[in-house]
Amino acid sequence: MYFSCNVSFSSLPVFLPTILKDMGFTAINAQGLTAPPYFLSFLVTIFTTWVADRLQQRGLMIAFLSTMGAVGYVLLATCESVGVRYFGVFLAASGVFPCIGNILPWVLSMFIPKVTAVLEYMYTNNDDTDNQGSDSRRGMGIVILNVVGQCGPFLGSNIFPSEDGPRYVKGQAICAAFMFFTTFLALSLRALLAWENKRLDQKYGTKAEREARKAGEKEGVVTSEENYGPDFRFVL
User: Fold this and answer.
1) How many alpha carbons fall within 13 Å on the CB side of residue 121?
2) Cβ-count burial of 167 within 10 angstroms (0-12 exposed, 13-18 middle, 19+ buried)?
3) 178-195 residue pLDDT tens
4) Which SS3 state, helix, strand or coil, does residue 115 take?
5) Residue 59 CB burial class (10 angstroms; 0-12, 13-18, ≥19)
6) Residue 107 and residue 93: Cα distance in Å, rounded?
7) In the 8-state DSSP scheme, what is residue 56?
8) pTM of the predicted model, to two decimals?
């Protein structure tokens, strides 16, 4: 997912002024018209990451954002109207950049059964559990994510040759394809993690069952455990 998004993520800021200029705008106006899509994508990034944290639904958010970005690229590739294509720029920017902002924390997302104990958890526990199961896996997960994901710009920065102007259909189509691919990957990974959570529920019991067993135990903060302990669940 990170690789696929980086194909579009790396090409959009570099080639957007050129794309806008080839729509008929002057060079200075093309530079200025890149600001509104970027500002909207900034707002969408802040909002969607907050919503995903609240709902604990990274996969669905990434799928929605990547689909929106893909639609934007489809409009850029297939439409000739300047207004529609500029609208496509808004969709592309508001899909690609927030998508990156949700993929990165999905690697490190924590599942804390007692939401009301978050602050106490943060100050009394040193071992944060995430979607990797342990600190060592989290570290290696970030390494793998960046080693693979940062190869995306090698492709993204070479799919908008000048001879493809003014519509750059090939580059836009490639970006759209990778964003749709991101949607598929996000939904597939979410389905896999949901299946893993069901296996953990069968092995250790559901959240309600675990809390019932702990009702008579000493009061304390319920936390996830490293290496997929009883209270560990993947963030979807």
Assistant:
1) 17
2) middle
3) 999 999 999 999 999 999
4) helix
5) buried
6) 22
7) T
8) 0.81
